[in-house]
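Quiz preparation item.
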């Protein structure tokens, strides 16, 4: 298939952003935004660093697996690259497609989970990239939009799905998971020291009444676990459930396993994470994929690594400057790692 095929479409979606049913417009209809200022959605982190390291330019094709508000994609487009972007959240696709309307010849947006990008971009006729970016986690819009259920501060149905067509909500999880499974989720994904107490409290509470709202869950957690420092007692529980509901760590692993083969020689892979759990996965995967040799105590000598297809560009993660953190406190925990595809 011809690589140029997707261009010229403002929104090319594997599942149409209007749900396929011919939306009558409204906030999520990109055409509604034409000619007027879009509301704030998300401030991209490490923007200049991403541009410096991915080196977008005319003739280059870049994949943005986490389109969000479109801030990173916009910078890549401004430098002349073509961008194929994905997001599993149809609100993000609608917002960013409206924002990037002026780049229709260089940009296409596809709905889907970046863990499945190979099938989705193949269907769009694409065979390789000069750059690939994922900036994982949730956007400010998702957190701030009370209705999405990501925030313990805002009364809403306990949802937390980035992909609103996905089967399992956070309410489904807290009302059905076995106590031991809840302990594992809170402990592994939230690193919550009170995981056991909180899981027990959830199981006790749901026996008398289903847990259906954010504030209901926040109160159960707060009653079970005393406040430590400035943080709300439900912070780690909400983080853990969000990661579980969206299967975020497995999605990251799947993406990292597939991405190197989609990079052209000299093409670069950039990953931004916000949690040590995710950064550890990226660090270990890139270290393995860039090690020319493997060694084990039981081997007489190191052996060539058949998986070595990358070279590390950032030995240590790139972090936000004090200036950026002042402007955007969320950037404090951002870590960017970049690797380059070796010539084949
Ligand atoms: C931190 S925001 C990205 C912000 C974006 N870089 C910008 O400049 O505005 C993360 C976005 O990625 C999306 N997302 C997270 N995990 C995803 C996944 N596995 N597949 C597709 N989209 C995902 C979320 O829906 C959200 O819109």
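Solution:
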């Amino acid at each position: 298939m011809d690589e140029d095929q997707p261009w010229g479409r403002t929104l090319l979606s594997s599942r149409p952003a209007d749900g396929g049913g011919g939306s009558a417009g409204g906030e999520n209809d990109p055409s509604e935004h034409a000619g007027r200022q879009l509301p704030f959605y998300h401030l991209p982190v490490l923007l200049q660093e991403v541009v410096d390291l991915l080196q977008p330019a005319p003739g280059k094709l870049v994949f943005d697996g986490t389109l969000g508000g479109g801030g990173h994609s916009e910078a890549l487009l401004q430098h002349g690259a073509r961008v194929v972007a994905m997001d599993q959240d149809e609100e993000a696709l609608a917002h960013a497609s409206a924002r990037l309307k002026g780049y229709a010849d260089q940009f296409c947006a596809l709905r889907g989970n970046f863990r499945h990008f190979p099938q989705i971009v193949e269907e769009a006729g694409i065979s390789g990239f000069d750059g690939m970016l994922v900036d994982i986690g949730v956007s400010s819009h998702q957190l701030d939009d009370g209705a999405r259920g990501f925030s313990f501060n805002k009364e809403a149905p306990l949802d937390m799905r980035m992909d609103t067509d996905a089967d399992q909500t956070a309410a489904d999880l807290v009302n059905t998971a076995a106590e031991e499974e809840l302990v594992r989720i809170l402990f592994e994904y939230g690193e919550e020291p009170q995981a056991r107490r909180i899981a027990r409290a959830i199981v006790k509470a749901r026996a008398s009444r289903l847990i259906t709202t954010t504030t209901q869950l926040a109160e159960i957690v707060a009653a079970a676990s005393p406040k430590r420092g400035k943080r709300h007692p439900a912070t780690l529980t909400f983080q853990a459930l969000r990661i579980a509901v969206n299967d975020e760590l497995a999605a990251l692993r799947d993406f990292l396993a597939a991405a190197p083969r989609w990079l052209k020689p000299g093409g670069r892979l950039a990953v931004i994470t916000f949690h040590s759990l995710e950064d550890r996965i990226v660090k270990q995967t890139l270290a393995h994929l860039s090690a020319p040799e493997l060694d084990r105590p039981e081997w007489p000598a190191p052996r060539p690594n058949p998986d070595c297809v990358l070279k590390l560009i950032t030995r240590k993660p790139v972090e936000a400057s004090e200036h950026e953190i002042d402007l955007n406190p969320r950037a404090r925990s951002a870590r960017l790692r970049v690797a380059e595809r070796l010539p084949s």
